[in-house]
Amino acid sequence: MADLSAFPITRRWPAKHSDRLQLYSLNTPNGVKVSIMLEETGLPYEAHLVDITENESHDDAFLSLNPNGKIPAILDPDGPGGQPLGLFESGAILIYLGEKTGQFLPADPARRYETIQWVMFQMGGIGPMFGQVGFFNKFAGKDFEDKRPRDRYVAEAKRLLGVLDRRLEGRDWIMGDDYTIADIATLGWVRNLITFYGARELVDYDALKNVPAWLDRGLARPAVQRGLEIPKKA
Predict the structure, then answer these.
(1) Which CATH number applies to 9-104: 3.40.50.2300, 2.120.10.30, 3.40.50.300, 3.40.30.10?
(2) Which residues in 161-183 are b (16+ Cβ under 10 Å) and which e?
(3) Which residue of 9, 33, 56, 158 sits 20 to 30 Å from the alpha carbon of 206, by its own alpha carbon?
């Protein structure tokens, strides 16, 4: 069995199976990227719920693994060279798991970097902008009398959806025939925008030509269905 005792996070969230990859997360759009990837690859793992609504991601034990205080994070007992590796940032974790398993990240260097660029598109654009739409449409920002901030982020969300829609023209997946970490990174955010954030009409989602069918294909995958619920609050 791997010895993970050097990692303080394992004292707050003990590992029952220390030979398995440890996932510290919640089923938010960022969190489910990693749980979906783990379900898709079949890599053995143990999920620990970090309740961000109770500020648990700012617990000292969690900060010892991710000083940025955000989920998800992982601790792989079998990292490079067989040594344990802690890792945070969902995009970095997806790339790591793709390389570790040889799945959902093309081996061809050109296609590999093309895939990573679309992961970065999600990380730098879709995630932050869709999250702002959620704040101004569903959470505290919805009560702001001035609707200009909301409208600014709605306009940017529509633009980003348009970029994705054009990319998907004639393609089943972002990289064409191959389902990759680019899709895994993006599916949960598009789903959240039109469901939990209640912005379907605001962003004219049903006017898109290709994104809705792509989302339906992704949500039909059994591993995606499982990953969207892991780890979920009781």
Answers:
(1) 3.40.30.10
(2) beebbebbeeebbbbeebbbbbb
(3) 33
